[in-house]
Structures are given as C-alpha cells and as structure tokens.
Design goal:
Blueprint: E1 3-5, E2 11-12, E3 15-18, H1 20-29, E4 37-41, E5 46-55, E6 60-69, E7 77-83, H2 88-101, E8 105-110, H3 121-135, E9 142-143, E10 147-148, H4 149-155, E11 161-165, E12 185-190, H5 198-206, E13 210-212, H6 221-233
C-alpha cells in the first residue's frame, strides 16, 4: 500500500484531507483516484488505511477504515547528534538512512572540528519525510536547528542512556548489553570528520555520556551514525 503524509490537524474523526505537495504527489505522481485505498501517516506515530472518496483540484479527502498506533515504530526513542560534514550530500545520505532505521530526532552539531557553519534544515526535513514514507514509518523525525555541542549537552532532554562515539579503545563495544526494558530513550553523539577533540569527549563524559567503540576500523561520520543507530534500534 502506498504511503502519504498529512499533519494531525487534517485528520478529524473518521475523515482525512491531503493537500499541498502531498496532494500533487498523490494525484500527479502516483495517479491515485476516487475509490483507491491508501495508507496515511500523521508523523506522530499514527497510521490509517484510507479510502479516497473525493479527489479535487487541490485537495483529496478520504474515509478512515482502520487505524494503527505506533505503526512500525521502535519502543526506544533515539536522539542523534551529528557533527556537520563538509560534503552536504553525505549528510543527506545520513538523514535518509537513520530515518529508515527509526531515529526520532536528528541534531546537526557545531563542534571544534566542524567546518560548515550553515545547516540545510528544510532540505533534510523533506528528505526525512520522503524516507519515512518509503520505509513505512509513521513518525516523522524532527531535524533540529544547527546547535553547538555545549548547547546540546546543556539543553538535551533527560534520557535513559547517553552514548558518544569515540575511536579510541576502551569504550563500549556491545551496546545491546546496556539495553533493557527500562531503556526507552537514548542520545547518541557522533563527531564530524576528525572526530571529537579530547576536551569534547571529557565534556560529554562529565554529563553522563559513555564512549562507544566500534572496533579497529576508523569509520566515516555517516557510517558511524548508521552503525550506532542500528546498534540500538535493530
């Protein structure tokens, strides 16, 4: 079944309306018409089987036949903070893949070794939306504004487990051993090219972050982010 997105305020009782870019995608790209059955997600974890009963010039409307809560979502909420990358296309790739894995929040970080000073937040939010629909999720990851590491550490909401990727030996090598039924939220930090500086690692440790070590290979930032997210969510 093809997936489409509409915000929660467009879902009232047993009816759904779809407009804007999603309407264009539904009618001009996917060629949906009255009488077709589609799946609609609201980006908040809810999914609906919808029978289209009206396809107009700018808006489509349908009737909800069945509802799903936390549709294809993990019980663990993951916040992923990642140092900005020099190559924007690599951050594009990262956003798509960690969305597919189930990450809830992505925060581009300014660190000591970060080179770019601007984040393409709007573009990444659109990529996350497309990836959410492609993989069949119902929660739309939030792409936060560009944030300094210090600000992130000071403002991050309380979580059950805090992890920071560190290439030096001595950190956790098996994240699964720290996961149990009580762990429902995890924050993961990944450095930019060159990784975090020693002082930044010490700063992370001081607020409860535990180093994660992925073995003898030096992973690129986007690879480390995917591996870290997968180690928690899969």
């Amino acid at each position: 079944m093809d997936y489409f997105y509409t915000p929660p305020e467009k879902i009232i009782d047993r009816s759904v309306t779809i407009g804007g870019e999603e309407f264009t995608h539904l009618t001009h790209v996917m060629r949906k018409k009255q009488g077709d059955l589609i799946r609609v997600v609201d980006g908040q974890g809810n999914a609906y089987d919808v029978l289209l009963n009206e396809v107009g010039k700018k808006i489509a409307a349908g009737e909800i036949l069945k509802s799903y809560i936390n549709h294809k979502e993990s019980v663990i909420s993951v916040t992923l903070g990642v140092g900005m990358l020099k190559n924007p296309s690599k951050f594009d790739f990262l956003v798509e893949k960690v969305t597919e894995l189930g990450v809830h929040t992505i925060v581009p970080l300014l660190t000591a070794r970060t080179i770019p000073l601007h984040a393409k937040t709007d573009r990444w939010q659109k990529l996350a939306l497309a990836a959410m629909k492609q993989c069949g999720r119902s929660y739309l990851p939030r792409i936060q504004r560009l944030t300094s590491l210090s600000e992130f550490l000071g403002e991050c909401e309380p979580v059950h487990l805090k992890l920071v990727a560190h290439e030096q030996e001595g950190g956790i090598t098996a994240v699964k051993q720290f996961l149990n039924a009580s762990v429902q939220s995890v924050a993961i930090l990944i450095g930019p090219e060159g990784g975090f500086e020693d002082g930044e690692i010490a700063q992370c440790r001081s607020v409860g972050y535990v180093p994660v070590y992925f073995g003898g290979k030096r992973l690129r930032t986007e690879t480390a982010a995917i591996v870290a997210a997968a180690s928690v969510l899969l």
